[in-house]
Design a protein that fits this description.
Length: 103
């Protein structure tokens, strides 16, 4: 099983490549949707890492995948600017998925 990174910047991709994670740098909403669709068809992709910037472009699509598909696991990672919203998105996902609000 493999991990794959969807990033909006080269720095994050380079760091992940050093740890053996493949990925791609993309910027447009349609590119993100196309790549997600492609990755969903690959049985060996277990985890998709996405920078916060890209996840924000397709948030509803990602939540739909998380709630309705057993794999891959999609994980939001902070972008290089460290916007600090990752905790909030995890809390929203838990609330949407099981109805429990995290503080």
């Amino acid at each position: 099983m493999r991990m794959y990174l969807l990033s909006d910047n080269d720095d994050t991709l380079m760091g992940m490549r050093m740890s053996g994670v493949e990925g791609v740098v993309i910027h447009q909403e349609h590119e993100v949707r196309e790549k997600l669709k492609e990755l969903m068809q690959q049985d060996d992709i277990a985890v998709i890492l996405m920078t916060s910037t890209l996840l924000n472009l397709v948030r509803e699509t990602v939540y739909d995948i998380k709630l309705n598909c057993p794999k891959p696991l999609i994980i939001e990672i902070p972008d290089r600017h460290g916007n600090g919203q990752t905790k909030d998105s995890i809390s929203k996902y838990v609330k949407d998925a099981i109805g429990v609000e995290m503080k």
